[in-house]
């Protein structure tokens, strides 16, 4: 018995410490947040676009030059590149997703980019636009049509871009870029290393174009037009030109962060204000508090002393969940908060199943300690089966759902797992400590409602 009492005090002390961590690491609750240690400052709640405000961008991908069978892979590569790019700028949990060319998107391949915390749309556009599009082009056939530019003075010049034809080799196959200096002139140059597929393509291109120009294009403009002397099988290319060391270093950084495998065009931009986000957070907190208080009222009125124990266990469950949200960390959206609130109801459901089983055992004439022991044992199978079904549902939603649905599924799944611990372990320990050995009517009244011998 003493062991259980000591364990109860340890759980309560740890819960109080965790609750203090949640309070001190949240700027909206802690007035002295700026004076706190770095650990607390780095673990505030991470809010999604709908709660913190930010930028919502929709891009159209130009897939006209990509074979039909490679569109999906190219779009996935584009998504990964954009994610790496915005992560470099410290954007918290960017959401980048591909919208396929089906009926909903009007047959176009689109890229949806959500940047929480970035309310300056032009800055967000610059983040995406700074990602370079790297292309390798060969000399166009002699019978290919040539484009002519007419200048302001009326003089016609041949457009250099029409003299080159695109190849399959793009920045999609770039493995890494490094800054080097010419040993003779000390001029900076950028060395490119391709992956296995890129190495094969580059070897084929150079083999077929010995003595011809293979132009290197960056963001649609030729930056280097070297003449191929021989087949290059090592998968390396060099960009040289009138670079300053700073420009070359910047280009290397941009290429390593991701060269766009597909050109993109901005279709729409939208700013979600922080005020709307604050209102959504306030509404979610209000709903959670009201729901929690109603649950507390029900448990105490209907189950009395066990209900009070369940309230303490439920409070610890909420503290654990909030701590996990901060430490993992979980990006909270409005849907995620909804999943958390539902998980509170699931945690209560487990306690209700246990207490109803205990009531049945008490009605059958068992003593309170025996009724608690048997009640937990009989309720476990129902709790286990219902929670497993909830976890399976959460996994399916997380695997197949959109980013909005994933937030709901994640918090719901976490809540189900933690609720099993709080209901089965914490509630059981607390009930063992407050267990009433007396078989008086007062003891039975305190322990449960509607019970008669």
UniProtKB/TrEMBL annotation:
Membrane topology, record value: Multi-pass membrane protein
Task: Give the transmembrane region(s).
Answer: 280-301, 308-328, 334-355, 388-409, 415-436
Superkingdom, according to UniProt? Bacteria
For this protein, the record's SUPFAM superfamilies field holds: Multidrug efflux transporter AcrB transmembrane domain
Give an example GO biological process. protein targeting
Task: Give the main location.
Answer: membrane
Q: Which UniProt keywords apply?
A: Cell membrane, Membrane, Protein transport, Translocation, Transmembrane, Transmembrane helix, Transport
The UniProt GO MF terms for this protein read:
protein-transporting ATPase activity
Pfam families, A to Z: SecD_1st (PF21760), SecD_SecF_C (PF02355), SecDF_P1_head (PF22599)
Domain (Protein export membrane protein SecD/SecF C-terminal): residue spans on this chain:
267-428
Show where the SecDF P1 head subdomain domain sits: 167-262
Localization per Swiss-Prot or TrEMBL: Cell membrane
Q: List the GO cellular component terms.
A: plasma membrane
Q: Report domain Protein translocase subunit SecDF P1 positions.
A: 76-138
Question: Subunit comment for this entry?
Answer: Forms a complex with SecF. Part of the essential Sec protein translocation apparatus which comprises SecA, SecYEG and auxiliary proteins SecDF. Other proteins may also be involved.
> What function does the entry list?
Part of the Sec protein translocase complex. Interacts with the SecYEG preprotein conducting channel. SecDF uses the proton motive force (PMF) to complete protein translocation after the ATP-dependent function of SecA.
* PANTHER family linked: PROTEIN TRANSLOCASE SUBUNIT SECD (PTHR30081:SF1), PROTEIN-EXPORT MEMBRANE PROTEIN SEC (PTHR30081)
Give the family from UniProt.
Belongs to the SecD/SecF family. SecD subfamily.
Protein name, as recorded: Protein translocase subunit SecD
Where does this protein come from, organism-wise? Candidatus Nomurabacteria bacterium RIFCSPLOWO2_01_FULL_39_17
């Amino acid at each position: 018995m003493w062991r259980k009492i000591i364990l109860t005090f340890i759980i309560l002390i740890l819960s109080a410490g965790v609750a203090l961590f949640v309070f001190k690491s949240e700027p909206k609750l802690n007035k002295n947040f700026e004076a706190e240690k770095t650990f607390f400052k780095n673990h505030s709640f991470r809010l999604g676009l709908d709660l913190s405000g930010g930028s919502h961008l929709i891009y159209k991908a130009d897939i006209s030059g990509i074979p039909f069978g490679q569109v999906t892979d190219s779009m996935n590569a584009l998504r990964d590149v954009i994610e790496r790019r915005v992560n470099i700028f410290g954007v918290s949990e960017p959401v980048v997703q591909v919208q396929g060319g089906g009926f909903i998107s009007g047959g176009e391949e689109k890229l949806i980019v959500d940047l929480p915390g970035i309310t300056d749309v032009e800055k967000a556009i610059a983040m995406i636009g700074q990602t370079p599009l790297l292309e390798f082009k060969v000399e166009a056939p002699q019978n290919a049509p040539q484009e002519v530019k007419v200048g302001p003075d009326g003089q016609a010049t041949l457009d250099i871009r029409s003299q080159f034809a695109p190849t399959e080799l793009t920045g999609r196959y770039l493995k890494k870029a490094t800054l080097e200096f010419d040993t003779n002139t000390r001029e900076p140059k950028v060395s490119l290393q391709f992956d296995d597929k890129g190495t094969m393509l580059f070897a084929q291109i150079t083999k077929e174009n010995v003595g011809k120009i293979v132009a290197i294009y960056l963001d649609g403009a030729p930056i280097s037009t070297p003449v191929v002397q021989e087949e290059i099988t090592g998968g390396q290319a060099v960009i040289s030109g009138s670079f300053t060391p700073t420009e070359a270093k910047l280009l290397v950084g941009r290429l390593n962060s991701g060269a766009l495998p597909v050109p993109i065009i901005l279709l729409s931009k939208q700013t979600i204000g922080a005020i709307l986000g604050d209102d959504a957070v306030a509404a979610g907190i209000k709903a959670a508090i009201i729901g929690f208080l109603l649950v507390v009222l029900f448990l105490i009125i209907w189950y009395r002393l066990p209900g009070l124990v369940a309230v303490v266990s439920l409070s610890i469950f909420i503290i654990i969940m909030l701590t996990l949200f901060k430490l993992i960390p979980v990006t909270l959206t409005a849907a995620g908060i909804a999943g958390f609130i539902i998980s509170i109801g699931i945690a209560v459901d487990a306690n209700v199943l246990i207490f109803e089983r205990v009531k049945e055992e008490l009605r059958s004439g068992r003593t309170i300690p025996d009724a608690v022991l048997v009640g937990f044992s009989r309720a476990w199978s129902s709790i286990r089966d219902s929670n497993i079904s909830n976890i399976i549902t959460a996994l399916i939603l997380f695997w197949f759902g959109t980013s909005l649905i994933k937030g709901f599924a994640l918090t719901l799944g976490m809540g189900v797992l933690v609720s099993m611990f709080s209901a089965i372990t914490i509630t059981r320990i607390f009930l063992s400590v407050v267990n009433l050995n007396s078989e008086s009517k007062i003891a039975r009244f305190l322990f449960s409602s509607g019970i008669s011998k």
